[in-house]
């Protein structure tokens, strides 16, 4: 099953999916760029639904303003399924002292939010979001990933990784898969468009992980022109069945409905037609429908 904010969903009911995005997000590293407007979030989800979208996976982790108390209502009112995350981001995204207070309780927090609910709500997380460092795993990243692996083994929840500028994905697999015995099919490597080395991407796919390309993201638009080349290299190598695509909308300005865009709908109004045109309808269906249904399930061996 896939755990949404309204409860468990059969994978084949997930439908056309934005595999990495944010409805709500607040970071100490991005002052003044908060996603905290309920009406704007609803408008963005409805615009995504109008473009044919059926599910959104929100990667906002613990402590960064997920607004879990609003997510079930948004899902109900828009008809769009929402999967939300537990986990912990890089240290700099939190106010001073926050990480120190919780770092010895991370596995417990993750398991509780995956099984009992987030805060005072009954909304349960459906994945664990963690983050690597720039080309290496620093002490914070390793601490969080060890807690994520513990929570994964207790719940079967998939683990999604923010890679700083797309780097250190190999180090993440070395730790999570080779050392901590997390099945590679439960690992989603994010932001790989930010490190557009085709050979590295093929090596990561060969190891059995999911490869998530998120964009267009206003903060990382330099990688947008390389997206199709990255996808082509993996498709040509036989890994169309490992690809995911998301919008990664992290600022109010980047929303389509209330900002300057391109926002969530762009995935379906612009990128999906291009993928269909270049690589065929079957590949587009895999990227937006069948791959997410496999990547975000707890039955990750399927």
UniProtKB/TrEMBL annotation:
Cofactor: a divalent metal cation
Chain sites annotated for binding Zn(2+) 2: 129, 162, 191
Modified residue annotations for N6-carboxylysine: 129
Segments forming a coiled coil: none
InterPro entries documented for this protein: Metal_Hydrolase (IPR032466), Phosphotriesterase (IPR001559)
Gene Ontology terms for molecular function: hydrolase activity; zinc ion binding
Pfam families documented for this protein: PTE
PROSITE patterns: PHOSPHOTRIESTERASE_2
Keyword Secreted attached: no
Residues binding Zn(2+) 1, per UniProt: 20, 22, 129, 248
Keyword entries, A-Z: Hydrolase, Metal-binding
Top-level lineage group: Bacteria
Family indicated by similarity: Belongs to the metallo-dependent hydrolases superfamily. Phosphotriesterase family.
This protein's name: Phosphotriesterase-related protein
Record organism: Kribbella pratensis
């Amino acid at each position: 099953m896939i755990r949404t904010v309204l409860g468990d969903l059969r994978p084949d009911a997930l439908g056309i999916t934005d595999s990495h995005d944010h409805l709500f997000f607040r970071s100490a590293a991005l002052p003044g760029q908060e996603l905290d407007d309920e009406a704007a979030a609803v408008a963005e989800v409805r615009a995504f639904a109008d473009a044919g979208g059926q599910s959104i996976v929100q990667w906002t982790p613990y402590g960064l303003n997920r607004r879990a108390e609003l997510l079930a209502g948004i899902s109900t009112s828009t008809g769009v399924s929402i999967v939300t995350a537990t986990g912990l981001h890089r240290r700099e995204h939190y106010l001073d002292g926050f990480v120190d207070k919780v770092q010895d309780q991370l596995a417990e927090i993750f398991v509780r939010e995956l099984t009992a609910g987030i805060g005072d709500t009954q909304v349960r997380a459906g994945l664990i979001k963690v983050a690597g460092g720039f080309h290496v795993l620093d002490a914070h990243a390793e601490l969080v990933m060890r807690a994520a692996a513990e929570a994964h083994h207790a719940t079967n929840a998939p683990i999604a990784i923010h890679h700083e500028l797309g780097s250190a994905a190999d180090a993440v697999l070395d730790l999570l898969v080779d050392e901590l015995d997390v099945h590679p099919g439960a690992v989603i490597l994010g932001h790989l468009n930010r490190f557009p080395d085709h050979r590295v991407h093929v090596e990561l796919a060969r190891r059995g992980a999911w490869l998530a390309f998120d964009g267009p993201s206003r903060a990382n638009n330099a990688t947008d022109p390389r997206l199709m080349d990255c996808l082509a290299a993996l498709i040509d190598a036989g890994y169309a069945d490992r690809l995911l695509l998301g919008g990664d909308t992290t600022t109010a300005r980047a929303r389509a409905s209330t900002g300057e865009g391109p926002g969530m709908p762009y995935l379906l109004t612009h990128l999906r037609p291009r993928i269909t045109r270049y690589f065929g309808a079957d590949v587009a269906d895999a990227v937006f429908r069948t791959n997410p249904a496999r990547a975000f399930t707890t039955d990750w061996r399927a």
